[in-house]
Write a structure and sequence with these properties.
This protein is of the alpha+beta class. The protein contains four helices and four strands, in the order ααβαββαβ.
């Protein structure tokens, strides 16, 4: 079989050459149509619920705010993980969804559960809110500092 393919290729150089050029053209076209991002975003689908309560200590924030919000959000379908961080006066609950889930659908589900979460927080100690749509890469602000013309070679050393 392989011998016949090689023999055909040797006898029909023009056909093989045109076929090779067609494959190259198709590859170049496919490469130009491929959506490539300069910095691919590999973070998961997540929605954060942030609650401010400046009068509570860390343990109280965990017990009175983070835990009720986690319990309320854990009933949403397609959840992969629910985690939280409690600090003095601040609760951040992160709800991680499976990769196939649309982020807007996930935010809608969390938004629907926020009313129930507010009712589970005793004494109106905090008002849970959804954070803006952002990813791990979106939180990184990248910048470059350029020197003014004429000052490129000046280096200031602070001791």
């Amino acid at each position: 079989m392989l011998k016949k393919i090689i023999q055909f290729s040797i006898n029909n150089k023009l056909v093989i050459g045109l076929f090779t050029l067609a494959l190259i053209a198709w590859g170049v076209y496919s490469l130009r149509q491929l959506p490539i991002d300069a910095v691919p975003d590999i973070t998961n689908n997540q929605v954060q619920v942030i609650t401010l309560s400046p009068s509570l200590a860390t343990q109280e924030v965990e017990r009175l705010i983070s835990y009720p919000v986690e319990q309320t959000m854990s009933t949403i379908p397609e959840i992969e993980q629910v985690r939280s961080i409690s600090r003095f006066g601040l609760s951040v609950v992160t709800i991680v969804f499976h990769d196939k889930v649309d982020i807007y659908w996930a935010r809608q589900q969390v938004n629907e559960k926020l009313a129930e979460a507010r009712n589970n927080i005793p004494g109106n100690l905090g008002n849970p809110e959804i954070s803006p749509i952002s990813t791990g890469l979106g939180e990184i602000y990248q910048y470059v500092i350029h020197a003014k013309p004429g000052f490129e070679k000046n280096i200031m050393l602070a001791n």
